Structure formats: structure tokens, C-alpha cells
Amino acid sequence: MHAFAYTQPADIDAAVRAGAASPTAQQGASVRFLAGGTTLVDLMKLDVETPATVVDINRLGLDAIDDDDEGGLKIGALVRNSDLARDPRVLRDHAVLSQALLSGASGQLRNMATTAGNLLQRTRCMYFRDVAHPCNKRTPGSGCPAIQGANRMLAVLGTSEHCVATNPSDMNIALAALEATVHIHGTNGARSVAIADFFLPPGDTPHVEHVLAPGDLVTHVRLPAPVPGARSHYLKLRDRASYEFALMSAAVVVAMDGDRIGHVRVAMGGLGTVPWRMREAEALLAGQAPSPALFARAGDAALADARPLSHNGFKPELAGRCLAAALAEVTRP
Ligand SMILES: Cc1cc2nc3c(=O)[nH]c(=O)nc-3n(C[C@H](O)[C@H](O)[C@H](O)COP(=O)(O)OP(=O)(O)OC[C@H]3O[C@@H](n4cnc5c(N)ncnc54)[C@H](O)[C@@H]3O)c2cc1C
Ligand code: SF4
Known about the structure:
333 residues; globular; 12 strands
């Protein structure tokens, strides 16, 4: 592990100032915020992340879950994954989020991991995590061995010739289906970004993963008020029953309008380079009576642009089945 400076600011402005200290603080960078540390410290031990300064944000508070005036929930950046998953309001109104969180990692990790840290966890592509290999995301311009190599777990949507890595977070898939908003405090003050616009596809700059600028601190994530009568579900498919990242997952939120589908939001994990909202599927499902044939058509529409790699050609078909099973769960009488 490389030597680094450590600082523990007492307020948000000081944290932002410390985070902005390096002009390259976004990716591959010399300043990093430390939350639970379950991603960052791992990557520092592997020499994948080599920050010159670590800004520990654990004294900032930001650890409450509050109701807001519009019926939504304001989730502090430092709320631990375990606490969020067990919050009675989340369990009652946003079951998909609780299920997604509880499907991830292990009990000990969830006790440390935070909302913002989970949001910003890095890819699990094995080449990214092993500095013996080139990787465009870690070292821009060095190449992408995954395209011809071990890509079974990697993406089929939103890929580029420079990177095919998936966003590994279960929580992010639920947040996409719930249409969460990310709230940020930066050197120019506060702003918010819809989760659909927060992550950036790799294109020819796979090292730039999100819209955060140097010093930008995520302060909280907001969930909008629940849609009346909505049911939600997170279905995760993986190679072993626990302590494993998603091979594929589906987060669905559906409110019926009589015997037809009214409000419907669908996002899937393990398929896209960013948490993947399935708008084509939503358009096909809305206003229709649920049926296996309809769900299959929705899956086909959602995966129409899929570009499988050498070892993940099974993903489009499995995705259709995963989506159909999740939709059946929330639409059955
Ligand atoms: C063995 C193992 C298994 C796992 N399995 C799963 C799984 O199945 N599913 C899953 O979804 N995840 C899984 N994870 C990942 C885990 O969920 C993440 O490591 C965790 O959520 C990260 O949260 P953290 O608070 O520890 O983040 P940290 O490691 O502290 O930070 C992660 C990143 O976020 C940045 N950051 C943190 N807070 C802020 C902030 N407020 N503003 C701006 N930047 C910030 C940090 O600088 C860093 O770049 C697993 C991890 C391990 C080690
Ligand atoms: S898929 Fe992305 S993260 Fe993996 S080796 Fe290629 S560039 Fe690196």
C-alpha cells in the first residue's frame, strides 16, 4: 500500500475543500473520500487506488433517514446499508430497496457500507482489480483485455470498444427503478442529479464513471413519495446463494390500475455498464393486462440492443426470464 495523508474534517464545507484539493480528484485520483471503506481500502491494498490524501467523512453526520415535505425519504450519505434495509418506511414503501441491499455482500459488510459508498463502488471486472493487467478504466489508453477475455459477468448493454464492465451495485438498480435523486455538495454549492443522469456510459473515457467533479460530496439520496398501491420486488440471479455479486438482477415497481398495469418502472443489473433502466419494456407494459406473453415481449424490447461478448451470450435470454419472474411477483392477484 502507498503512503497517504489522512484528514478527518468536521463539516461538509471543509470536506469539499479537502476533496477539491487536487485538480484530478475524480478518477485515478489523488484525493478520495472514505466512508465505510469496504471498496476503497480494498482497492488501495491492491494498488488500484493510490490516493495521496484520504478524506474521512465519518464525522460529518449525514447518517439520518428523514421524511421530506413531499412524502419522500431523504437518506443520508453515511446511512449504513443494514440500517437502510431495516428502516420501517423503506420496508413498507420501497421493499425493492431493502431486498436489493440485503441481497448484497454480507452482514458485516452491510454494517460498514454506506449509501454513498455503495452508490459509488467500483466495478468488479477482474482486470480492473489486478494491476498486472492493462485496463482502460484504471489506466486510460492501456487496453481492455476483458473484451477477448473473462467477460462472463460483464455487460451487454451500453458497452464500447474501450470498456464492457458492469456497475456492480444491487442498491443502484433499486434506486434506478425508484427514480431516486442524488444530492451533491460541491465547491459551487448544492445541486441534485436524477439517478438516470448520474452515471456515464464508458464511451471512449471509461475512467470517467459519473458526473461528480473534484470535491463533490454526495450528501444524501432522495426517494420520491411512493406511488399509491405500488408493489416492488428485487430478483437477483447469482452463481451462489449468498455473498456473491449479481450475474443479473431485476428491480420492478408496479401499481395496477384495475386488472391492467398502471405505473411501471423497470431496471436491471448485470447487463449494463450503468444501472440500466428498461424504458422500452415500461412502454410496452403500461396499460396492458399482465401475462407471460406480455412479459416476454417486454424482455425482447428491453434487450433488442444487447451486444453479447464471447462468454456471456446467455445473458439476453436469461434477462428475459429474470424480468418475467420479477414482474409475475408484483402483478399476481
Ligand atoms: C466481499 C465483498 C462482497 C460484496 N458483495 C456485494 C454485492 O453482492 N452487491 C453489492 O451491491 N455490493 C457488494 N459489495 C460492495 C459493497 O456494497 C461496497 O463495498 C460498499 O457498498 C461500499 O460502501 P462504503 O461505504 O464502504 O464505500 P467506501 O469504500 O468508503 O467508498 C467507495 C467509493 O465511494 C466514494 N465515496 C464514499 N462516500 C462518498 C460521498 N459521500 N461522496 C462522494 N464520494 C464518496 C469513495 O471515495 C470511494 O471511491 C461487496 C463488497 C465486498 C468487499
Ligand atoms: S471491461 Fe473496463 S474495467 Fe474491465 S478491463 Fe476492460 S476497461 Fe478495464
